[in-house]
Amino acid sequence: MKGVMAQEHLLLWKSAIVLAVLGVQCIAVVRAEGPKTPSPLRLVADVPMPGPPVRFDYQSLDATSGRLYISHMNADQLVVFDTRERKVVANLDGFPRVRGVWVVPPHERVYAAARASHEVVVVDADTLKVVARVAGVPDPDGIAYAPKADRVFVSDERSKADAVIDARTNRLVTSIALGGEAGNTVYDAGADRILVAVADPAELAVIDPAAAQVVGRIALPGLKEPHGVALDVVRRVAYVAAEGNHTLAVVDLESRKVLETHPVAEDPDVLSLDPGRGLLYVAAESGNVTVFARQGKGLVSRGQMAIPHAHSVCVDPGTHLVYLPLEDVGGRPVLRIMEPAVND
Predict the structure, then answer these.
(1) pTM for this one?
(2) I need a surface site. Which of 132, 158, 219, 297 has the fewest CB within 10 A?
(3) Is 164:150 a contact under the CB 8 Å cutoff?
(4) Which candidate, 255, 257, 256, 220, places its Cα nearest to that of 241?
Protein backbone atom coordinates (compact mmCIF):
# COMPACT_ATOMS: atom_id res chain seq x y z
CA MET A 1 0.00 0.00 0.00
CA LYS A 2 2.84 2.35 0.92
CA GLY A 3 4.50 1.48 -2.41
CA VAL A 4 1.34 2.38 -4.31
CA MET A 5 0.97 5.61 -2.38
CA ALA A 6 4.60 6.42 -3.03
CA GLN A 7 4.07 5.90 -6.76
CA GLU A 8 0.95 8.09 -6.73
CA HIS A 9 2.85 10.85 -4.94
CA LEU A 10 5.64 10.49 -7.48
CA LEU A 11 3.16 10.81 -10.37
CA LEU A 12 1.51 13.85 -8.78
CA TRP A 13 4.90 15.41 -8.21
CA LYS A 14 5.90 14.81 -11.85
CA SER A 15 2.54 16.19 -13.05
CA ALA A 16 3.07 19.31 -10.97
CA ILE A 17 6.48 19.79 -12.55
CA VAL A 18 5.04 19.33 -16.05
CA LEU A 19 2.23 21.84 -15.33
CA ALA A 20 4.70 24.26 -13.88
CA VAL A 21 6.88 23.97 -16.98
CA LEU A 22 3.86 24.38 -19.27
CA GLY A 23 2.80 27.38 -17.23
CA VAL A 24 6.22 28.97 -17.66
CA GLN A 25 6.09 28.24 -21.38
CA CYS A 26 2.63 29.90 -21.67
CA ILE A 27 3.89 32.95 -19.83
CA ALA A 28 6.96 33.03 -22.03
CA VAL A 29 4.77 32.98 -25.16
CA VAL A 30 2.69 35.91 -23.89
CA ARG A 31 5.78 37.91 -23.06
CA ALA A 32 7.31 37.11 -26.44
CA GLU A 33 4.53 39.17 -28.11
CA GLY A 34 6.08 42.29 -26.62
CA PRO A 35 4.49 45.73 -26.30
CA LYS A 36 2.01 47.01 -28.87
CA THR A 37 3.27 49.29 -31.63
CA PRO A 38 2.73 52.88 -30.47
CA SER A 39 0.17 54.96 -32.35
CA PRO A 40 1.76 57.22 -34.97
CA LEU A 41 -0.53 60.14 -34.00
CA ARG A 42 -1.69 61.60 -30.71
CA LEU A 43 -4.78 63.64 -29.98
CA VAL A 44 -4.51 67.41 -29.66
CA ALA A 45 -8.19 68.40 -29.65
CA ASP A 46 -11.68 67.45 -30.80
CA VAL A 47 -13.50 70.57 -31.96
CA PRO A 48 -17.31 70.33 -32.34
CA MET A 49 -18.53 70.89 -35.89
CA PRO A 50 -21.91 72.21 -37.07
CA GLY A 51 -24.47 70.20 -38.97
CA PRO A 52 -25.71 66.61 -38.69
CA PRO A 53 -23.44 63.60 -38.05
CA VAL A 54 -22.98 62.65 -41.71
CA ARG A 55 -20.13 62.15 -44.14
CA PHE A 56 -17.36 64.69 -44.81
CA ASP A 57 -15.06 64.67 -47.84
CA TYR A 58 -12.14 66.79 -49.08
CA GLN A 59 -10.39 69.68 -47.32
CA SER A 60 -8.23 72.59 -48.51
CA LEU A 61 -5.99 74.79 -46.36
CA ASP A 62 -5.14 78.41 -47.11
CA ALA A 63 -1.79 78.66 -45.31
CA THR A 64 -1.77 82.47 -45.54
CA SER A 65 -5.08 83.06 -43.76
CA GLY A 66 -5.04 79.87 -41.70
CA ARG A 67 -8.50 78.98 -42.95
CA LEU A 68 -9.39 75.36 -43.59
CA TYR A 69 -12.26 74.69 -46.00
CA ILE A 70 -14.03 71.38 -45.34
CA SER A 71 -16.71 69.78 -47.49
CA HIS A 72 -19.50 68.37 -45.31
CA MET A 73 -20.68 66.20 -48.16
CA ASN A 74 -23.93 64.65 -46.98
CA ALA A 75 -24.97 67.87 -45.22
CA ASP A 76 -24.61 69.84 -48.49
CA GLN A 77 -22.47 72.37 -46.63
CA LEU A 78 -19.03 73.95 -46.81
CA VAL A 79 -17.46 74.53 -43.39
CA VAL A 80 -14.91 77.33 -42.93
CA PHE A 81 -12.58 76.67 -39.99
CA ASP A 82 -9.99 79.03 -38.47
CA THR A 83 -7.00 76.84 -37.59
CA ARG A 84 -5.35 79.58 -35.51
CA GLU A 85 -8.36 80.29 -33.32
CA ARG A 86 -9.61 76.69 -33.57
CA LYS A 87 -13.16 77.71 -34.27
CA VAL A 88 -15.73 77.52 -37.05
CA VAL A 89 -15.94 80.82 -38.94
CA ALA A 90 -18.92 79.91 -41.13
CA ASN A 91 -21.08 77.02 -42.23
CA LEU A 92 -22.26 77.67 -45.79
CA ASP A 93 -25.36 76.11 -47.36
CA GLY A 94 -26.05 75.47 -51.04
CA PHE A 95 -23.44 72.84 -51.94
CA PRO A 96 -25.39 69.71 -52.95
CA ARG A 97 -23.28 66.61 -52.12
CA VAL A 98 -20.09 68.68 -52.05
CA ARG A 99 -16.91 66.68 -52.56
CA GLY A 100 -13.69 68.30 -53.75
CA VAL A 101 -12.73 71.76 -52.48
CA TRP A 102 -9.76 73.93 -53.38
CA VAL A 103 -8.73 77.43 -52.35
CA VAL A 104 -7.10 79.71 -54.97
CA PRO A 105 -5.42 82.58 -53.05
CA PRO A 106 -4.41 84.68 -56.11
CA HIS A 107 -8.11 85.18 -56.90
CA GLU A 108 -9.33 84.95 -53.28
CA ARG A 109 -11.70 82.24 -54.41
CA VAL A 110 -12.71 78.80 -53.18
CA TYR A 111 -13.91 76.16 -55.65
CA ALA A 112 -16.22 73.38 -54.45
CA ALA A 113 -17.44 70.37 -56.42
CA ALA A 114 -21.21 69.97 -55.98
CA ARG A 115 -21.92 66.48 -57.23
CA ALA A 116 -25.71 66.48 -56.94
CA SER A 117 -26.13 69.69 -58.95
CA HIS A 118 -23.38 68.78 -61.46
CA GLU A 119 -21.53 72.04 -61.01
CA VAL A 120 -18.53 73.72 -59.42
CA VAL A 121 -19.51 76.42 -56.91
CA VAL A 122 -17.20 79.44 -56.62
CA VAL A 123 -17.02 81.30 -53.28
CA ASP A 124 -15.43 84.66 -52.48
CA ALA A 125 -12.92 83.87 -49.72
CA ASP A 126 -13.37 87.31 -48.17
CA THR A 127 -17.14 87.71 -48.10
CA LEU A 128 -17.89 83.95 -48.16
CA LYS A 129 -20.59 84.62 -50.75
CA VAL A 130 -21.19 82.47 -53.84
CA VAL A 131 -20.02 84.44 -56.87
CA ALA A 132 -20.45 81.83 -59.61
CA ARG A 133 -21.77 78.38 -60.40
CA VAL A 134 -20.00 76.60 -63.24
CA ALA A 135 -22.37 74.11 -64.85
CA GLY A 136 -21.58 71.33 -67.29
CA VAL A 137 -19.49 69.08 -65.02
CA PRO A 138 -21.61 65.91 -64.59
CA ASP A 139 -19.67 64.25 -61.74
CA PRO A 140 -17.18 66.71 -60.16
CA ASP A 141 -14.73 65.43 -57.56
CA GLY A 142 -11.07 66.41 -56.99
CA ILE A 143 -9.89 69.95 -57.81
CA ALA A 144 -6.51 71.56 -58.58
CA TYR A 145 -5.30 74.98 -59.75
CA ALA A 146 -2.62 75.62 -62.38
CA PRO A 147 -1.33 79.18 -61.73
CA LYS A 148 0.56 79.80 -64.99
CA ALA A 149 -2.42 78.89 -67.15
CA ASP A 150 -4.73 80.43 -64.53
CA ARG A 151 -7.08 77.48 -64.83
CA VAL A 152 -8.92 75.21 -62.43
CA PHE A 153 -9.02 71.49 -63.22
CA VAL A 154 -11.76 69.24 -61.89
CA SER A 155 -11.98 65.44 -61.93
CA ASP A 156 -15.20 64.49 -63.73
CA GLU A 157 -15.22 61.02 -62.22
CA ARG A 158 -17.85 58.95 -64.02
CA SER A 159 -17.52 60.96 -67.24
CA LYS A 160 -13.89 59.78 -67.41
CA ALA A 161 -12.69 63.32 -68.00
CA ASP A 162 -11.07 66.37 -66.45
CA ALA A 163 -13.01 69.63 -66.69
CA VAL A 164 -11.14 72.89 -67.28
CA ILE A 165 -12.38 76.21 -65.83
CA ASP A 166 -10.99 79.67 -66.61
CA ALA A 167 -10.22 81.16 -63.17
CA ARG A 168 -10.60 84.73 -64.47
CA THR A 169 -14.08 84.31 -65.91
CA ASN A 170 -15.23 81.20 -64.01
CA ARG A 171 -16.43 79.66 -67.23
CA LEU A 172 -16.00 76.10 -68.46
CA VAL A 173 -13.31 75.99 -71.15
CA THR A 174 -13.36 72.33 -72.15
CA SER A 175 -13.46 68.77 -70.88
CA ILE A 176 -10.44 66.53 -71.46
CA ALA A 177 -11.15 62.83 -72.13
CA LEU A 178 -8.98 60.57 -69.97
CA GLY A 179 -9.93 57.12 -71.25
CA GLY A 180 -10.83 55.83 -67.78
CA GLU A 181 -12.59 56.84 -64.57
CA ALA A 182 -10.99 59.94 -63.05
CA GLY A 183 -9.56 59.87 -59.54
CA ASN A 184 -7.95 62.84 -57.85
CA THR A 185 -6.49 65.77 -59.81
CA VAL A 186 -3.31 67.53 -58.59
CA TYR A 187 -0.98 70.25 -59.87
CA ASP A 188 2.71 69.43 -60.32
CA ALA A 189 4.47 72.76 -59.85
CA GLY A 190 7.86 71.24 -60.70
CA ALA A 191 6.83 70.53 -64.29
CA ASP A 192 3.80 72.84 -64.67
CA ARG A 193 1.58 69.86 -65.34
CA ILE A 194 -1.73 68.53 -64.06
CA LEU A 195 -1.72 64.88 -62.99
CA VAL A 196 -4.90 62.82 -62.81
CA ALA A 197 -5.26 59.29 -61.43
CA VAL A 198 -7.04 57.08 -63.97
CA ALA A 199 -8.69 53.89 -62.70
CA ASP A 200 -8.61 51.65 -65.76
CA PRO A 201 -6.09 51.31 -67.21
CA ALA A 202 -4.24 52.16 -64.01
CA GLU A 203 -2.15 55.21 -64.81
CA LEU A 204 -1.45 58.87 -64.20
CA ALA A 205 -2.61 61.09 -67.04
CA VAL A 206 -0.26 64.05 -67.59
CA ILE A 207 -2.00 67.22 -68.82
CA ASP A 208 -0.51 70.41 -70.25
CA PRO A 209 -2.62 73.12 -68.50
CA ALA A 210 -2.21 75.73 -71.24
CA ALA A 211 -2.97 73.37 -74.11
CA ALA A 212 -5.62 71.51 -72.07
CA GLN A 213 -4.44 68.23 -73.57
CA VAL A 214 -3.10 64.92 -72.29
CA VAL A 215 0.61 64.95 -73.19
CA GLY A 216 1.70 61.73 -71.47
CA ARG A 217 0.70 58.75 -69.39
CA ILE A 218 2.52 57.01 -66.55
CA ALA A 219 1.62 53.34 -66.15
CA LEU A 220 0.96 52.15 -62.59
CA PRO A 221 1.64 48.39 -62.53
CA GLY A 222 0.58 46.73 -59.29
CA LEU A 223 -2.29 49.14 -58.68
CA LYS A 224 -5.99 48.48 -59.11
CA GLU A 225 -8.28 51.50 -59.40
CA PRO A 226 -5.86 54.28 -58.36
CA HIS A 227 -7.62 57.27 -56.84
CA GLY A 228 -5.80 59.38 -54.22
CA VAL A 229 -2.66 61.33 -55.18
CA ALA A 230 -0.13 63.44 -53.28
CA LEU A 231 3.08 64.98 -54.61
CA ASP A 232 6.57 65.60 -53.28
CA VAL A 233 7.45 68.31 -55.79
CA VAL A 234 11.06 68.75 -54.61
CA ARG A 235 11.94 65.05 -54.82
CA ARG A 236 9.87 64.61 -58.00
CA VAL A 237 7.77 61.82 -56.52
CA ALA A 238 4.05 61.06 -56.69
CA TYR A 239 2.28 58.93 -54.10
CA VAL A 240 -0.75 57.14 -55.55
CA ALA A 241 -3.24 55.06 -53.54
CA ALA A 242 -5.34 52.34 -55.17
CA GLU A 243 -8.87 51.65 -53.93
CA GLY A 244 -9.14 48.26 -55.63
CA ASN A 245 -6.25 46.50 -53.93
CA HIS A 246 -5.43 48.79 -50.96
CA THR A 247 -1.94 49.57 -52.22
CA LEU A 248 0.19 52.72 -52.21
CA ALA A 249 2.69 53.28 -55.03
CA VAL A 250 5.73 55.55 -55.01
CA VAL A 251 6.17 56.92 -58.53
CA ASP A 252 9.34 58.63 -59.80
CA LEU A 253 8.10 61.50 -61.98
CA GLU A 254 11.44 61.79 -63.79
CA SER A 255 11.87 58.17 -64.84
CA ARG A 256 8.07 57.65 -64.88
CA LYS A 257 8.49 54.35 -63.05
CA VAL A 258 6.91 52.85 -59.95
CA LEU A 259 9.75 52.60 -57.43
CA GLU A 260 7.96 50.62 -54.72
CA THR A 261 4.54 49.69 -53.36
CA HIS A 262 3.19 49.42 -49.80
CA PRO A 263 0.01 47.92 -48.31
CA VAL A 264 -2.41 50.39 -46.73
CA ALA A 265 -5.82 50.16 -45.09
CA GLU A 266 -8.89 49.09 -47.05
CA ASP A 267 -10.27 51.64 -49.54
CA PRO A 268 -7.65 54.41 -49.29
CA ASP A 269 -9.13 57.81 -50.14
CA VAL A 270 -7.35 61.09 -49.31
CA LEU A 271 -3.57 61.58 -49.00
CA SER A 272 -1.69 64.48 -47.43
CA LEU A 273 2.06 65.13 -47.26
CA ASP A 274 3.91 67.16 -44.64
CA PRO A 275 7.03 68.14 -46.64
CA GLY A 276 8.85 69.62 -43.63
CA ARG A 277 8.55 66.56 -41.42
CA GLY A 278 8.65 64.16 -44.35
CA LEU A 279 5.47 62.38 -43.25
CA LEU A 280 2.77 61.05 -45.58
CA TYR A 281 -0.75 60.42 -44.27
CA VAL A 282 -3.05 57.98 -46.08
CA ALA A 283 -6.66 58.07 -44.86
CA ALA A 284 -9.03 55.26 -45.80
CA GLU A 285 -12.78 54.68 -46.05
CA SER A 286 -12.32 51.80 -43.59
CA GLY A 287 -11.55 54.36 -40.88
CA ASN A 288 -7.81 53.77 -40.66
CA VAL A 289 -4.94 56.20 -41.12
CA THR A 290 -1.52 54.89 -42.24
CA VAL A 291 1.54 57.04 -41.65
CA PHE A 292 4.74 56.79 -43.68
CA ALA A 293 8.08 58.53 -43.24
CA ARG A 294 10.04 59.63 -46.28
CA GLN A 295 13.31 57.77 -46.84
CA GLY A 296 15.09 59.14 -49.89
CA LYS A 297 12.60 58.69 -52.70
CA GLY A 298 11.02 55.80 -50.85
CA LEU A 299 8.88 55.37 -47.76
CA VAL A 300 9.01 53.47 -44.48
CA SER A 301 5.89 52.74 -42.43
CA ARG A 302 5.42 54.57 -39.14
CA GLY A 303 2.31 52.59 -38.29
CA GLN A 304 -1.45 52.63 -38.63
CA MET A 305 -4.29 53.56 -36.31
CA ALA A 306 -8.05 53.12 -36.36
CA ILE A 307 -10.09 56.33 -36.35
CA PRO A 308 -13.76 55.71 -37.29
CA HIS A 309 -14.90 57.72 -40.35
CA ALA A 310 -11.40 59.12 -40.93
CA HIS A 311 -11.12 59.01 -44.70
CA SER A 312 -10.23 62.68 -45.24
CA VAL A 313 -6.95 64.12 -44.00
CA CYS A 314 -5.19 67.47 -44.30
CA VAL A 315 -1.86 68.45 -42.75
CA ASP A 316 -0.75 72.01 -42.01
CA PRO A 317 2.89 72.18 -43.20
CA GLY A 318 3.58 75.12 -40.88
CA THR A 319 2.37 73.63 -37.60
CA HIS A 320 2.54 69.94 -38.64
CA LEU A 321 -0.94 69.46 -37.18
CA VAL A 322 -3.18 66.88 -38.84
CA TYR A 323 -6.89 67.56 -39.42
CA LEU A 324 -9.45 64.74 -39.62
CA PRO A 325 -13.16 65.64 -39.93
CA LEU A 326 -15.16 62.83 -38.32
CA GLU A 327 -18.87 62.49 -38.99
CA ASP A 328 -19.96 60.93 -35.71
CA VAL A 329 -18.23 61.10 -32.36
CA GLY A 330 -20.73 60.65 -29.56
CA GLY A 331 -23.60 61.55 -31.87
CA ARG A 332 -22.14 64.70 -33.40
CA PRO A 333 -19.49 65.66 -35.98
CA VAL A 334 -16.08 66.84 -34.79
CA LEU A 335 -12.85 68.04 -36.32
CA ARG A 336 -10.13 65.91 -34.77
CA ILE A 337 -6.76 67.65 -34.55
CA MET A 338 -3.73 65.41 -34.08
CA GLU A 339 0.05 65.60 -34.19
CA PRO A 340 2.85 63.12 -34.90
CA ALA A 341 3.57 60.95 -31.88
CA VAL A 342 7.03 59.90 -33.01
CA ASN A 343 10.24 61.83 -33.31
CA ASP A 344 11.93 62.36 -36.67
Answers:
(1) 0.88
(2) 158
(3) no
(4) 220
